[in-house]
Amino acid sequence: MLFLIRKLGKLLRGNVTPFQIIAGCLLGAMLGFMPGFATAPGLIAVLLFALLVINANLLLAGFVGIAAKLLSLLLLPVSYYAGRALLDGPTEGLFRGLINAPVFALFGFENYTATGGLLIGGIFGLIVGIFISKNITAFRTKMAGLNESSPRYQEMMEKKWMKLGTFIFVGGGSKKPDYAALLAKKTGNPIRILGIVLVALCLVLAGVTYQFFSGQIVTTTLRSGLEKAVGATVDLESAEIDLAAGRMTLNGI
Question: pTM for the whole thing?
Answer without folding.
Answer: 0.71
